[in-house]
Amino acid sequence: MPLRFIIIDNDPVNNLLCSLTIRDVAKEAEIQTFNFPVKAFEHIITVPLNTDDVTVLLLDINMPIWSGWDFLDNFEMLDEKIKRQIKIYIISSSIDTSDKHRARENKNVVDYIEKPLSEKTVSSMLEQKWTQTLQV
Amino acid sequence: MNNTKRSDELINVNKELAFQKDEKKKRAAELIIANKELLFQNEEKEKRAEELVIANKELVFQNEEKEKRAAELVIANKELVFQNEEKEKRAAELVIANKELVFQNEEKEKRAAELVVANKELVFQNEEREKRDEELIIANKELVYQNGEKEKRAAELAIANEELIFQNTQKEKMTADLIQRNKDLEQFTYIISHNLRAPVANIIGLSYRLQKLDLADDIKKQIVSGLSTSVNKLDEVIRDLNDILKIRQKVDESKQLINLTQFANDIHLSIEKMVENENADIVWDFTRADEIVTIKSYLHSIFYNLISNSLKYRQPGIPPVIHIRSEKLNNKIVLLFTDNGLGIDLPKLSDQVFGLYKRFHTDRAEGKGMGLYMVKTQVESMGGKITINSEVNKGTEFKIEFET
After folding, report:
1. Which residues of B touch A95 (CB under 8 A)?
2. pTM beyond 0.90
3. ipTM
């Protein structure tokens, strides 16, 4: 049961909203928010991860400097061990179908979520049985 | 008996013998006369014979002559015979040749007959050709005339064609223009709708949260503050949209003749503070093209935004220097804004520079990322074109072109 969440969005209001929603469903969840994807990326590669932990990462698309896609491109280059432990969901206010499609096509993305984040979505994330073996 | 007979017989015989002796004597006497005659004749014959011998010799001689002649004649004859034979051969050959000639003559006559027929045919065809030739001459005159007409048409078509080509080029320019405008609009629509949806999504989430019971006070405050921010953001986007649309529709604006040097002096006041703060140096030179027909407020916005942009993205530690100059090129007026700022990584970001809500170097300056978008919209709504040239850590140059 993942109790670690990372939220990456340059919009602080969204980060607030997601935090509140997650907190409502999982009171003990550890939530980290970032306004700059670069900083989030640095955090991921520097902080040592416990092999049992699973982190859910909510990633916005439209951000200056690094967009969500840029973040994903860089994420792809990371070690398999790290990638396995971080489950990325793209969360966006965009209702554009090509964005949805592109998100679901990416092999490092679990799913695409439309803002605002709902409690139902958070619950289903927590109920996922993440396997620790290598994904095919 | 017998002896009587015999004696008779012997008497008879003796009579006969006596008679015969007489007769012989007569004969002898006759014979002597005859002999004398014969002698005489013999002498005559000898004379004759001598004459004959002479004559004979003569004859012999003549005979010899004749024999020579005859021999010659024989030879001549043989010759003649040979010649005759030759002549006969010739004659035979001539006969054959003659038959051949006759045959050939018959052939020739057949040919001649055929030629006569063919000739008649040719004469007939010639007459036909002459008729055709006359017709062709008439047709030719007709064609020459038509060619003349066609050349006139062709000349007219060439002119019309040039006209069409020109119009086509115009249309192609317009089409390219329209396609670009359309792309811009699509992008614009995408951006606006996205920028509208973002705060709306927040408002939905936050207002939902707000309806929960047992909310802690500080959480409530945060939510309400978030709502306020989002609503204002929404309002802002709508206002931006309005501003942009106004420019696109060129509402309330009309062009006027502006003197650039004077204009620059005028705006200097409004940017003075900004310039002083950054310790900047702004130099302008409009000697090559000092007058321009344009919308004053747009020109103001363009100058303001480009200068402000250059100041915002200056190289830290280096006093910013901005050159503004004008040029006349063919039938265009060109405005150039050059700075020594941070520059932009063009190959990577060229189509985002003038993008709506696009910003680079967000760590260095405030701003929504609308300044350059507005500049571009304003330039294009006046029929102009703006391009950028830049090198990271060296500087940037904006080039604006207007048709006169």
Report:
1. 197
2. no
3. 0.87
